[in-house]
Each structure stands twice: as C-alpha cells, then as structure tokens.
Amino acid sequence: MGILSLTEKRDNLLMWAHYAAEHTGYVIGFDTTHQYWNNFGDETGNDHASVLRKVDYSDRRPSPGHVAAVTRTEMYFTKSREWQYEQEWRVFRVLEQADHVIGLENDLPICLFNYPKESVREVLVGCRASEETENAIVEIVAGTKAYQEVDVLKAEIVQPNSSSISDLLGCRVRPKVGRAPPDASRLSETRHRRSL
Length: 196
Known about the structure:
The chain has helices at 13-19, 72-77, 131-142, 165-168, and strands at residues 2-7, 26-31, 53-54, 56-58, 78-80, 88-93, 100-102, 110-112, 120-125, 151-157, 171-177, 186-191. The chain is an alpha+beta fold. Strand 9, helix 3 (131-142) and strand 10 (151-157) form a beta-alpha-beta unit. The two termini are 23 Å apart. Mean pLDDT is 76; it is low at 41-46, 162-175, 177-186 and 190-196.
C-alpha cells in the first residue's frame, strides 16, 4: 500500500522544512471537492482506506495485545498527537496499480498515480526555491491548457530576523503569476522539485 498525505495548511513552517527540502521545493494545492478525491475504492465504496480522509490524532496507541481489535480505518488514519501540526489527510492506493514507477538504485521505487489536472488549483513555490525551479513551474503551468486557472504563488518568510516563533510561522504568499489566493476547499501536497 502507498500513502498520499495532504495537509490543510499550506503555510506551516515545519511542513515546508520537513517535506519540501527546507523551503526549496513546492506545494501543489488541490480542489478536494473534485469528484476524483472522493471516488477511490471499489464499486461499492467499501474500501475506507482508499477514500480521502482526515487523520485522527490520539494519545491512545494500540498495544501489541490489542492490535487485532483495531479497525483498518483506525490503523491507517490514526497518528500520535505529536503530529497534529501536520493537519493531515490521507488516501491509500495499491502500489501495483501505479501509473508510473521510478526505480531508484539502492532504495525503494517511487510509485506515481495520475490525478486530474483540473483538480489542481495552485502551486506554491518555496521561499528558498531556485529561480530554475520557479521558472520550470511557471512554464509547466502556463504551457498546460488544463492549468489555465491554476495560481502560481511564491512563499515568503515574514520577519526572518525575528526571535518570535509566531512571527516566523507566518509565511506570506504573494502571486507569482495568476490570480487570487486559494479558498478553504483546498488541500496541499508538499513536493520537492525533483517531483516535477
């Protein structure tokens, strides 16, 4: 099984540091009201792991003696409260059904799944991303008809010399190309630039 993890919050400093190569990568914002995000699973809709769901953060962890009593949904969609800052949503996919597989020497392969281009609403470029990365993203978005409505935005650290954590956590977003900032129906997937 493979996991696609998304976050509700595109301006979380820790998420950028951990999952976007310390702000040098990018985030893809999806419109999760698109039917694709609610259309996983079998024809009967019984595969709860294959439906986009919010992760539950809990202090209770399954003990080895009670693992059999844990439901599949609890197992796949529960994490320790320490990870609550991620505001994570997940969907699971069978890796053998991947649309593309990238083999890596001395590592596990990367399994990629297609998603509808029209479900993309924004691409947010990290505040430390190279000009080459920015230009490549702008070129892809501008050159793809299905991305005509996609915003390309640039993250900026607010008050980088501030000693206040709350000041540093406020990433401001400015338009790079395109239109207005996104609405609340979007979830973001953090990606490093090699995923382009």
